[in-house]
Design goal:
58% of the residues lie in helices and 0% in strands. The protein is an all-alpha fold and 163 residues long. α1 runs antiparallel to α2 and α3 packs across α4.
Length: 163
């Protein structure tokens, strides 16, 4: 089997990653990513690295490719800037998706609304339903609209007031 070419890595980069790998405060995925890079640098091909670490072949390919595509950008860095770059390099890239549609201020207003009684807003109910809370939040102009599932997620992540 034809082996993949070893990825370039300076002795200081390799030493930095070897030392970082021994630290206990490293997240699991960052630890795996360091091992992938070090094994790719040692000359193992993608399949060998995948088998050695028991990770997917796609993961190995991704991190080999990511290292190679960013190598020219960071090889001129030195000292703290290089260590900062090498540490942040291991983190996930921002995920795609639409931006938040409800601001933190709107979330706070909805939580405040939910903490009140429906009767305070002229509604003859003893407790809020998600549907009614959604309607009142929209009628008060807090949000244009909000689904009951989004309301449920918002209220679940908010800790209830202690009495």
């Amino acid at each position: 089997m034809q082996g993949a070419k070893a990825i370039p890595m300076t002795a200081s980069e390799q030493g930095f990653y070897e030392e970082l790998k021994r630290k206990n405060k490293l997240a699991y995925l960052e630890h795996i990513r360091i091992q992938i890079l070090l094994l790719c640098h040692s000359g193992l091909n993608n399949s060998e690295v995948s088998r050695e670490l028991k990770v997917s072949l796609n993961m190995v390919k991704k991190w080999r490719s990511r290292w190679l595509s960013g190598y020219d950008n960071h090889r001129q860095l030195e000292g703290q800037k290089k260590h900062f770059y090498l540490t942040n390099f291991l983190k996930d890239n921002p995920r795609s998706g639409s931006p938040k549609k409800i601001s933190a201020a709107q979330e706070q207003s909805i939580v405040a609304l939910a903490c009140g009684k429906p009767r305070d807003y002229g509604i003859e109910m003893t407790d809020w339903t998600l549907a009614m809370l959604s309607k009142v939040a929209a009628s008060k102009g807090i949000v244009k609209s909000i689904s009951t599932s989004q309301l449920s997620r918002l209220l679940k992540k908010t800790s209830p007031p202690t009495s």
